[in-house]
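User: Predict the full complex structure for these chains.
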Amino acid sequence: MQDVLEAISDPTRRKILDLLKQGPKSAGELGEHFDISGPSMSHHLGKLKTANLVVTERRGQSIYYSINTSVFEDAAQFVIGFFQEKQGSKS
Amino acid sequence: MQDVLEAISDPTRRKILDLLKQGPKSAGELGEHFDISGPSMSHHLGKLKTANLVVTERRGQSIYYSINTSVFEDAAQFVIGFFQEKQGSKS
DNA sequence: TAGATATTTAGATAATTTTCTAAATATCTA
DNA sequence: TAGATATTTAGAAAATTATCTAAATATCTA
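Assistant: Here is the predicted structure of the four-chain assembly.
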């Protein structure tokens, strides 16, 4: 869960996730929305992938990224739980 | 909200929040649970305060920290919303 | 008021993260 | 297969964050 919280703490990565809500996009398509180099984009995508927040699929030369819905739900649950348990914390 | 996500992305700060779930604690009492200096503790508490995740109250020489419940709820709502809106994202 | 205790601020160093360019890998097409 | 396109990896530089010691501020008590 550390990976997830760290991943979503970065504004660039949240914007990437936002864009992916519209549907799968390639690394290049995502990159058009940012003023950073390809390798920097790849770095952020790597962190999202490590956190399991996105999944990838190659289609020809491009690699398409999409949101991993189930993990998003797990993450939401964690955050809710983290915030709600008031006593006997186990997080 | 950036401040909140950044604040909870750090393990030390999540542990602080966890300890505070049991009730208010002074900076010194919190520090006993960590192997870091007072100023480092103060730094983390400052970040939590900037994010408005904790509130403080001076009692004599000590300053007591406690969880700011309402903001925790806002934060949970944000994360849930962030994860759930699948289209037309506005976050 | 002087000394003790609690916490923060200041300023520097260490560790981590982000970013870049150059090069490597993978795929497609002529 | 050679060249073009898409993405990642390698390695270094820049930016940010966490940590430390020393000093400052605030409060209490004798």
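The interface with chain B takes residues 2, 5-6, 8-9, 11, 14, 17-19, 21-22, 72-73, 75-76, 79-80, 82-87, 89, 91 of chain A (CB under 8 Å).
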